[in-house]
Amino acid sequence: MAAKIKKGDKVVILTGKDKGKKGDVVAVFPKENKALVQGVNMVKRHEKPSQTATGGIVTREAKVHLSNIAIQDPKTGAPTRVGFKTLDDGRKVRFAKASGETIDG
C-alpha cells in the first residue's frame, strides 16, 4: 500500500498532549507505524558526556503514531484524510478528501 504520510508533509496532531499542533514530518518509520514531527512530542533525555559532546539533559522530538497524525489540508489548513487518484497523464497522486486539492504533483 502506498504511503499516505511522507517526509516533508505538513501534519496536524489529532490526540495527546500536543493536540492541535502543526509541524513538518522529519522522518517516517513504516515498520513501526510512527513518524517524527518537528517540534512535537518533545521529551527530555539524560545523556552522558562523551569526547565530542557534553552531557546533560537534552530535549528532542519523540516518534508519534501515524493514527494520531493527519495531513494538513493545503486549502484550509484543517486536518484531512488522504486519498489517491490517477491523473490524465497516468501519475498517481495524493489528494485531500475534504477539499479535493492535490497534495503532491
List strands and helices in order, with pairings.
Blueprint: E1 10-13, E2 22-29, E3 34-37, E4 42-47, E5 56-61, E6 63-65, E7 69-72, E8 79-80, E9 82-86, E10 92-96
Antiparallel strand pairs: 1-2, 1-7, 2-3, 3-6, 4-5, 7-8, 9-10
What would you note in describing this structure?
With 105 residues, the chain is an all-beta fold. The protein has no helices and 10 strands. The chain has one domain: SH3 type barrels (Roll), CATH 2.30.30.30. The strands form 3 sheets. Strands 6-3-2-1-7-8 form a 6-stranded antiparallel β-sheet, with no helix packed on it. Strands 4-5 form a two-stranded antiparallel ribbon. A hairpin with an 8-residue loop joins strand 4 and strand 5. The protein starts with 9 loop residues before the first strand and ends in a 9-residue tail after the last strand.
Task: Name a few traits of the molecule.
105 residues, mainly beta, SH3 type barrels, two-stranded antiparallel ribbon, 10 strands, 0% helix, 45% strand, RNA-binding
